[in-house]
Specification:
alpha/beta, globular, leucine-rich repeat, binds magnesium ion, seven-stranded antiparallel beta sheet, about 25% helix, Leucine-rich repeat, LRR (right-handed beta-alpha superhelix), Phosphorylase Kinase, domain 1, about 475 residues, five-stranded mixed beta sheet, 3 domains, Prot_kinase_dom
C-alpha cells in the first residue's frame, strides 16, 4: 500500500515536470506587450509589464474584470510615453476605457481603434498626435467620453456615427482641425468664407510665417512686409535672447516682435512644435504668442504689444510724467502675475516652468493688468535635455538658492523668484540694489536683517502711498 502510494506520488511529480506549464500570457497581455514595444517608455514605468506573467491584471495602469481576467481599462496618463499607438490595441477586445492623456505620443490614431466595440472612454488629449481623425471612431456606439484636445490633428472631423455627438471640448487645441463640432468651416466648404485657423506661408525669400488660431488677421504678405520694414527706430528693448521691436499694422494695431538671434542646436521641427504649444496657451495674465516667422538668419516671435512696457521699467525708470504705482496697483500686479504663474504650473500639461520670473518679464497693459512674458522660452532656447541645466536661464538676484546649487529649475524655484518680485513691488528696489549688495546681501538677506531689528517699515517704498504697515506685513512680508 505504502509502495503504491509512493509510486503514485512519483508519477504525479513526473507528470507535472513533463507536462509544459500553462504559463503563457493571455492574448490581452500579449496585445499590451505589443503596445509596450511600440511606446518608447523613457522612464521605464512599464517595467511591471512582463512576458513571464500569466495575465496583465497586476500591471501598472491595467484594470481587469474578474473572473475572466479580461482587460477593461488602461490608465497611463502622464507617464512620459513616446512613440505611436500600435494598432494591436484592437486585440484587447474588452477594453472599456483608454486614458493616455498628457504623454508624448506621436503618429496618428490607428483606425483599428474603431474595432473596440465596448469602448466607452477614449482620452488621448495633450499628446503630439497628428493626422486626421479616423472615421472608424464613429462606429464606437458605446463611446460616451472622447477627448482628443491639444494635439496636432488636422483636416475635417468626420461627421459619422457617434463622432457627430461630440462638441468643441473634445477637439479644442488642434490648430488645423475643422468641421461642424468645432464650428470651424474647412477650406473649400461652400457658402462660407474660408477661415484659416492656422495659416502658413513660405515666402519667396525663404521666410516662413506661422500664425496661431487665426490670431493675426492679416495676410501673410502684409505681415512679412511689416516685419521687413522694422528697423532701429522700432526697438523697444533688448534682452538675453535678442531685440524687441514694435510693429504697427495699417489698422494701427500694435504687436511686439522678438528677434531671436541665438539658436539652440536641435531640429527646427521640435522648435516649431514647442512654439505651437506655447502659442496655444491662453490666459489673461500671460502674454499671447500670436505667431512666428522663420528667416534664414533669425527667428521672429510675434506677441501682443503691452503698451506700458515692463514692470521693471515702470517701477524703476518711470519718468516725471508717469503716475507712480500706488499700493492698489501693486496689489493688482502681484495678484495677476500670481494667476499667470499658477496657470503655467497647475493648468498646463505638461507643466510649464518659467525659469526667469522677474520684473522685466511682467508686462503691463494700459489698465495696469500684468501679463507674464517669455514663459517656456528659457527651455526652448537653452534646452533641458537631462532635466537639469546649468544655470544659464534665470537672472541673478531672482534665483532660488537650490536652483543656483544644482541647476534644477522647478515650480518651487519659480515661486522663489516670484517672492523676490513681491519684495521688489513692496520695496521699490531691484534685487540687486547697491544699498544691500554693497553689504554682501541680497534682497532676502537685507529684509531678514531688518526683520530681526523690528525695522520692517523702513523697507516700504514711499511711493506706495499711505499704506498701513500691518496690512502690508500681513499680505506680503510675513
Ligand atoms: N510684448 C511686449 N510688449 C511691449 N514691450 C515689450 C514686449 N516684450 C518685451 N518688451 C520690452 O522689451 C524689453 C526687453 O524684453 P526681453 O524679453 O527681450 O528682455 P528682458 O525681459 O529684459 O530679459 P530676458 O531676455 O531675460 O527676458 C522688455 O523689458 C520690455 O520693455
Ligand atoms: Mg523678457
Amino acid at each position: 500500500m505504502k509502495l503504491s502510494f509512493l509510486a503514485l506520488l512519483a508519477l504525479i511529480t513526473l507528470w507535472t515536470i513533463s507536462i509544459p506549464q500553462s504559463s503563457s500570457l493571455t492574448p490581452d497581455g500579449e496585445a499590451l506587450l505589443e503596445l509596450k514595444s511600440g511606446f518608447n517608455d523613457t522612464k521605464g514605468l512599464l517595467r511591471s509589464w512582463k512576458h513571464k506573467d500569466h495575465n496583465p491584471c497586476g500591471w501598472l495602469g491595467v484594470t481587469c474584470h474578474f473572473p475572466d481576467l479580461r482587460v477593461r481599462s488602461m490608465a497611463l496618463h502622464r507617464n512620459s510615453l513616446h512613440g505611436p499607438i500600435p494598432p494591436e490595441i484592437k486585440n484587447c477586445t474588452e477594453l472599456r476605457a483608454i486614458y493616455l492623456r498628457a504623454n508624448y505620443l506621436q503618429g496618428s490614431i490607428p483606425p483599428e481603434i474603431g474595432e473596440l466595440d465596448y469602448l466607452t472612454i477614449l482620452d488621448l488629449s495633450s499628446n503630439l498626435l497628428r493626422g486626421t481623425i479616423p472615421p472608424s471612431i464613429g462606429q464606437l456606439v458605446n463611446l460616451r467620453f472622447l477627448n482628443l484636445s491639444t494635439n496636432f490633428f488636422s483636416g475635417e472631423i468626420p461627421n459619422v456615427g457617434v463622432l457627430s455627438s461630440f462638441r468643441n471640448t473634445s477637439f479644442v487645441g488642434n490648430l488645423e482641425l475643422c468641421g461642424l463640432p468645432i464650428q470651424k468651416l474647412c477650406r473649400g466648404s461652400l457658402g462660407f468664407p474660408a477661415v484659416l485657423p492656422h495659416s502658413e506661408n513660405v515666402a519667396s525669400q525663404g521666410a516662413k510665417l506661422v500664425t496661431f488660431h487665426g490670431d493675426l488677421p492679416y495676410s501673410s504678405e502684409e505681415i512679412i512686409k511689416k516685419l521687413e520694414q522694422l528697423d532701429e527706430e522700432d526697438i523697444v528693448g533688448s534682452g538675453g535672447f535678442g531685440t524687441v521691436y514694435k510693429m504697427v499694422m495699417d489698422d494701427s494695431s500694435a504687436f511686439a516682435v522678438k528677434r531671436i538671434d541665438r539658436n539652440r542646436e536641435g531640429s527646427d521641427q521640435i522648435f516649431e512644435t514647442e512654439l505651437e504649444i506655447l502659442g496655444s496657451i491662453k490666459h489673461i495674465n500671460l502674454v499671447n504668442l500670436r505667431g512666428y516667422c522663420k528667416l534664414p538668419s533669425a527667428k521672429l516671435l510675434i506677441y501682443d504689444y503691452l503698451a506700458l512696457g515692463s514692470l521693471d521699467h515702470y517701477l524703476h525708470e518711470h519718468g516725471q510724467d508717469d503716475q507712480p504705482l500706488n499700493w492698489n496697483a501693486r496689489m493688482k500686479i502681484a495678484l495677476g502675475s500670481a494667476r499667470g504663474l499658477a496657470y503655467l504650473h497647475h493648468d498646463c500639461s505638461p507643466v510649464i516652468i518659467h525659469r526667469d520670473i522677474k520684473s522685466s518679464n511682467i508686462l503691463l497693459d494700459i489698465s495696469l493688468e500684468p501679463h507674464v512674458s517669455d514663459f517656456g522660452l528659457a527651455k526652448l532656447l537653452v534646452g533641458d535635455d537631462a532635466n537639469v541645466t546649468t544655470v544659464v536661464a534665470g537672472t541673478f538676484g531672482y534665483l532660488a538658492p537650490e536652483y543656483l546649487n544644482d541647476g534644477r529649475a522647478t515650480e518651487k524655484s519659480d515661486v522663489y523668484s516670484f517672492g523676490v518680485l513681491l519684495l521688489e513691488l513692496v520695496t521699490g528696489k531691484r534685487p540687486t540694489d547697491p544699498c544691500f549688495v554693497r553689504r554682501g546681501l541680497n534682497v532676502v538677506g537685507w529684509l531678514n536683517t531688518l526683520n530681526g531689528g523690528d525695522r520692517l517699515e523702513e523697507v516700504i517704498d514711499e511711493k506706495c502711498g499711505n499704506v498701513g504697515i500691518s496690512k502690508l506685513l500681513k499680505r506680503f512680508l510675513i
